[in-house]
Amino acid sequence: TNWEVVGFDDNAVVNVTDLVTETLNASCGGSTTLGGSSSAVSVDGCIGDETITLAGDAVVTGDIEAAGGDDTITVSGNASVLGDINVANDGQDGSAADDLGNTVVVDTTGSVGSITGGDNTENVTLLAGTVGDIDTGAGDDAVVWSGGTTTGITTGDGSDTLTITAAAYDGSQALDGGDDLSGGDGFV
Prior knowledge:
By secondary structure, the chain is an all-beta fold. It is built from no helices and 16 strands. It has strands at 2-7, 13-17, 20-25, 31-35, 39-44, 51-54, 59-60, 64-65, 69-77, 80-86, 99-116, 122-135, 142-145, 149-154, 161-164, 174-176. It has a 16-stranded parallel beta sheet that branches. It is globular and about 45 Å long.
């Protein structure tokens, strides 16, 4: 089915398969899974604590914006996000200022263009797949890179934790902890 904008009731648990849409507005405070051979230009969260999952062969050709709240975004199966997973952008309701921190898990045979965090705690786990830059922004962030590839990781100001066990790490990837000078001010 082809739609321009698809949205769901607040706090709903929704599983969508083989949907083609321009914009998917995730269930505020709920769980939204885009699976099968679905395609969306953008997926937008809101002020609630959402769970957004891409599975199967789903593709987001633009960005995922999680917006406010404490959100969890998972990219699994063979799913891909060609743009950015931005956990601190405005989403469907302009609630970026109400962002509380987020979790992003990438465990796909597909790819993610980039991951961008905000000023709160971000937890990013790269298990499989190809990710461009990971930039968690300021805040006390944690990044675990145990599989897949990335071009670089920037954690910004804050007391950050970076764990790398991925075989793909060869020293050529950029690793930057912001302007931190010691463990007391967020040394990576």
